[in-house]
Design brief:
This protein folds into 3 domains: 180 residues, 3-Layer(aba) Sandwich (Rossmann fold); 165 residues, TPP-binding domain (Rossmann fold, 3-Layer(aba) Sandwich); 185 residues, Rossmann fold, CATH 3.40.50.970. Helix content is 36%, strand content 16%. The strands form 3 sheets. Strands 2-1-3-4-6-5 form a 6-stranded parallel beta sheet, sandwiched between helices. The chain has a 6-stranded parallel beta sheet with strand order 7-12-11-10-8-9. It has a 6-stranded parallel beta sheet with strand order 14-13-15-16-18-17, sandwiched between helices. Strand 10, helix 11 and strand 11 form a beta-alpha-beta unit. The radius of gyration is 28 Å and the shape is elongated.
Length: 561
């Protein structure tokens, strides 16, 4: 029988799955659930050692003899500190040493409880990875714990070998052994390139070909990659390709951009039908919360993430495989390895999304963005502010020749304008910035420099505050809290813009918008930068957006499918 501590059960199951066979066990009380479970499991050869300092070096010797990872397990407090010399040696000798330390629950650290020191991160830069496992009470705790252990064990042999530290808080009672078997656990694997001489990846290709419902999601990529036609034709028909505007031209064909709206219209039955069996991702951040929620609730059987750094990125909670290589090289490698049979799944997504009605909106923030996008010069760069602007832009089709930029690394509002002006300073294109009032006024000092060129045009959406916060589901605000949360104001950019040499345009209705847009969006160079300030009513904006989604669902027929 094994311990009832779920974080320990996850750890032991993953140690076995990742090929750890030898474990050095040190005495103590807090680590009894660990020691008992490890020593009871038949897959491990265990070695008792009293002195932790000696135990660490003993484990190094075991690893040096076989080359594989070896674990050493100790109790809490200074027992762990005695492993420090061995950890340092393992780091500089590139030995895959797995240090497992039992710990008190976090609430008792620093409270004069016995055998307590701050254990997480105690080895600093002398380990390749240090993780502090959660105690497991929810499904999310279990997913998080599983991911951390996978990350740590994968790090023992990533870009060279070395030690890792896994800290395991253990609450009382310590001596409850009720688990008969180890749980089925998710094992994350990593492939470092697809070499034709490497037999290991053949199994990967076989897995790829067995799935008929294959989806690729492309996150933010600030570049253009034009696939050779011989690859494009083969790749495009085999996958449902989803990408937002910030993915730019990094797909072998035209991706589905309106998937967020599509997901909104789908009932439960349609969502089940449209879920992928295999998900492949590359690129950076994804804006759509609805897509993240959908895939977390409808997890694929496998999720492969392709990136040059080979880091574990488990955005949808179902990661199984990390492929460490350039994503375009990966796609071109697999193009000729795909079975000739064309699956129906990509067409299902394409046809569903094509059938969504295109609806016009009344004068609002959204219609202003739509008016701009419909008249965008084909050779231009579009800079989108965070929060509302980037989400509303997704409602419209942006020409594929337009570069789309946005600070989605942290999704903050503080530097949208500064980043765009910096980009424009080195650009020979027309650079158009779309942003809300809070983003603009927060970063207004971006205009306080001598680097602003005539290739800058700013569409400022001013509805008197950060009203997107007011539309969040489940958030009911009083008059007082509303003032603070949405940052209500009565500020205009007119004086500041004109003082800084901008041509200022004021827009307060649909007719003014269409007239002003003729000059704002003209592709010809002008002799000064332009700022168009579009004033809207925040309450009307929220209502128009709500009505849009209501009509979308009604007109799509998604609720009846």
């Amino acid at each position: 029988m094994y311990t009832d501590k779920k974080n320990i059960l996850q750890l032991v199951a993953l140690l076995e799955a990742h090929g750890v066979k030898k474990i050095v066990l040190c005495p103590g009380s807090r680590n009894i659930p660990l020691v008992h479970t490890l020593s009871t499991h038949p897959s491990f050869t265990c070695y008792p050692m009293t002195d932790e300092r000696s135990a660490g070096f003993f484990a190094i010797g075991l690893s040096l003899n076989g080359g594989g990872p070896v674990a050493v397990c100790c109790t809490s407090g200074t027992a762990l500190l005695n492993l420090h010399p061995a950890v340092a040696e393992a780091f500089y000798q590139n030995v895959p040493l797995v240090v497992i330390s039992a710990d008190r629950p976090g609430a008792w650290i620093g409270q004069m409880d016995g055998q307590t020191v701050p254990q997480p991160g105690v080895f600093g830069t002398l380990v390749k990875k240090s993780v502090n496992l959660p105690e497991i009470y929810t499904d999310e705790d279990e997913w998080y714990c599983n991911r951390l252990i996978n990350e740590a064990l994968l790090a023992t042999h990533h870009h060279g070998k070395g030690p890792v530290h896994i800290n395991v808080p253990v609450n009382e009672p310590l001596f409850r052994f009720t688990a008969e078997v180890l749980p089925e656990v998710r094992v994350i694997t990593r492939y470092q390139g697809l070499n034709v001489y490497d037999r290991d990846y053949k199994e990967l290709i076989e897995r790829l070909n067995k799935y008929q419902k294959r989806m690729i999601i492309v996150g933010q990529m600030n570049l253009i990659y034009l696939f050779d036609k011989k690859y494009s034709k083969l790749l495009y028909k085999h996958f449902a390709w989803l990408s937002e505007h910030i993915g730019n031209q990094t797909v072998p064909g035209l991706p589905i951009r309106n998937f967020d709206a599509a997901l909104y219209t789908m009932n439960d039955e349609v969502q089940e039908k449209m879920m992928p069996e295999l998900l492949i991702t590359y690129g950076g951040h994804v804006v759509s919360k609805r897509l993240k929620k959908y895939l977390r609730q409808h997890p694929p059987k496998e999720h492969w993430h392709v990136s040059l750094d080979g880091e574990v990125v488990d955005l949808y909670g179902s990661l199984t495989t990390v492929i460490e290589m350039d994503p375009f090289e990966f796609l071109e490698k697999i193009a000729f390895l795909l079975e000739n049979k064309t699956p129906q799944y990509p067409l299902m997504w394409e046809n569903y999304c094509k059938a969504l009605p295109q609806m016009e909106m009344a004068y609002s923030e959204m219609s202003a963005i739509g008016a701009l996008i419909r008249t965008l010069p084909e050779q231009s760069a579009l800079h989108l502010g965070n929060s509302s602007s980037i989400r509303y832009a997704q409602l419209y089709s942006v020409p594929p020749t337009v570069e789309v930029c946005c600070n989605r690394g942290t999704s903050g509002i503080e530097g949208t304008l500064s980043t765009a002006i910096g980009y424009a300073a080195a650009s020979d294109k027309l650079n158009i910035v779309v942003m809300g009032d809070l983003s603009f006024f927060y970063d207004m000092n971006a205009l306080w420099n001598g680097n602003i060129g005539t290739n800058i045009r700013i569409l400022l959406l001013n509805n008197g505050g950060g009203e997107i916060f007011h539309t969040l589901p489940g958030l009911e605000m009083s008059g007082t809290s509303h003032k603070f949360i949405t940052a209500v104001h009565k500020t205009s950019a007119k004086g500041w813009a004109e003082e800084r040499g901008f041509l200022y345009q004021c827009v307060e209705d649909e007719n003014q918008l269409l007239e002003a847009m003729k000059l704002f969006a003209q592709p010809e160079p002008m002799n000064q930068p332009v700022l168009m300030e579009v004033f809207t009513n925040k309450n009307k904006d929220a209502r128009i957006l709500k009505d849009y989604y209501h009509q979308l669902k009604q007109n799509s027929g998604g609720s009846e499918k």
